[in-house]
Specification:
alpha/beta, Spore Coat Polysaccharide Biosynthesis Protein SpsA, Chain A, Rossmann fold, 4 domains, 6-stranded parallel sheet, 28 helices, 29 strands, 36% helix, YkvP/CgeB_Glyco_trans-like, Spore protein YkvP/CgeB glycosyl transferase-like domain-containing protein
Length: 722
Amino acid sequence: MLRRVRALWRKARESPRLRPLLDFVDRCWWARAILRAHIVDVDFVAAQGTRLTARAAVQAYVRGGFRTGMSLNPLFMEELVSTQLADADRVPALYAYAVGDVDRIVTSVIWDSVAYARAFPDSVDARGGPLGHAWRGARASGRIDLGTTDHPEIHRWAEVHRVAISAAERSSRPDRADLHPAIANIVLLSRIARDEEPGRPLVAAMEMSHLAEADVVIAVADEATDAWVAASLMSLRLPRFQVVLDTEDIVDRVAARAPASAVVVVRGERADVSAQTLIDLAESAVHGQVAPLWVALDGTIASAGIIAHGSRTAHLLAGHPIEDAGRLGSSIEVIGTAGTTFARPVTSSTAPSTTRLDLISRAPAHKSEPEPTDAPDTDLAGILSPLGFDVLGWDGRRPTLSRRRSLVRLPDGSEVSSLRWALKIVAPPGRVGEAWGDTHFARGLADALRRLGQEVVIDAYDARQRPTVYLDDVVVALRGPEPFSPQPNAFSILWIISHPDQITADEVRNFDVVYAGSHEWARSASHRFSRPIETLLQCTDAHRFRPLTGRRTKDIVFVGTARGIPRPSVLEPIAAGIPVRVYGPDWRGWIPARSIIATGIANSELPELYGSAAVVLNDHWPAMRDAGFISNRLYDVVAAGGRAISDHVEGIAETFGGAVRTYGSVGELVELMQGDLDALFPDEAELRTISDRIRTDHSFDARARTLLDAALRGVDPSTSVG
């Protein structure tokens, strides 16, 4: 019933007439939940500009304050919590926390709410969850623990509250405070913008303070309440932390207050960079300025450093995929570093600037005009020669290149061209993309193609039309939920691995070769679209997924997102009392909290999880199931020596034998799982035999061989594989 109400409510939002009314109802509902949580700190709210009652503060917050930096409690960071929620772009984070699985949500970087929930289980059911329980307890007892489970740090609440209020006041009325002298040989300056989530840079700063014994200066933009408060409270735990207003001259000001022998490391605004990268920069900058490879938000290189051409500056490797930088080695000398993240010695140096190509900072790219320079022209041809690139000329700020093609000998003795392949995926770049199966699928395929002597780069969806696509010989578009177009001047392959219901005749028309992960769909689509579509099933990474020697557990496992819809393969077994262990995001509100083991799992941990589980549950999108597209997960599970239960898709039995059992209805699924699971599947020896066959016939290496043969026929008919 509740699910149907949710679906109707979401549909009603699409009505222009009903939307304003529903928005008003939403705000009332949000306010009610937050007020009932009893977590509004009115003194803290007053420090942000206006003294309000708790009710008035909540009303201001839900009417839009949550989008403009308003905070209702010093132990709650709006943007940090939003990153952990599925509906963060629409609802206030404090409301989502109040009605969510409060024991799993990290509310602040200066107070461990998850550890608190474990230490005080009753707090989970208290008003406002662990946050409300701890805040009210601190006010009553006068103490709060800002440490960790292993290293508690008890602080007086009056002092914590005073610092939080002072920081909130400074965020709304900042002044240019003097900097304290630094004493360490490494000084980190972390600049935090008003519109960025401050949790990650603050945690990185804290880690660097511990690991490198660095002094830390946090330079915060005005009206960034979360950042001001959290950073100021960190200074209670770390005396060598100071928080100041960010200014244009902040780098010079910090350097002026540091020892002459020190290195200043600058973390630029909105830069996604780890503490270890910052430490590595510091260690590399003793004699001269050093910067990491600057990667834009679309996943392409923004700059590998400043070079000179024709008395003007240019960005090295701008618009290239990051794989090109990786083939140049670990570092390169340039006439100047690029980007807002860098390290430099306090004392001026005549040493050349360096870009560490093995270190990455992801930050927004910005258009900048070439600047005049007296530096001689950089030997770009010499730099790019190891990549097989020749410089043909310059087109404005970018060089025009060509790629030399060479021959490689394969293990079977045949000699073929080494082509440049671009694998196009729908996944975003960076940390977010790590949770996408497409990312790891592309990496597995790329590794297999490289084992065949090919050069391979991977483009996230936003980089699919990067400025250097003209260098690619072959494009493989891994079709997921978004469409792709053929790439001009490249042999273009479309491999449809999901969402077959979205494919149109226009999309497939101009690709040189089209593959699909279903025999039946490929046959019917060939007729429907009046062009050949060949079958190329999904596959597994046989170098990662292999049977292990450990014993099989009794765990029933599901890995995947909730998709925002009821997934009966998970919901119904749990409702029947079957203990399913779920790994994946967005399950809060759909299943009990005890069933959610984690909101994700590292891809590197999947082989052991799949291979040791009693059974892995799997299901398919209806469109994929009906079209005969078998989930990639089943290939991984069986390759790892695992056992799976899945909804029925044509071809599963023929492909996986007894390693995968299928069901036709939810009732049948529950009945299977309530019985003896061991009796459903072959013995371990037979499972290993099936695994060996899957790892041979359905590996990335097998698929790469097929793709290479097709590409060579299209690009270089004089050579072919097999």
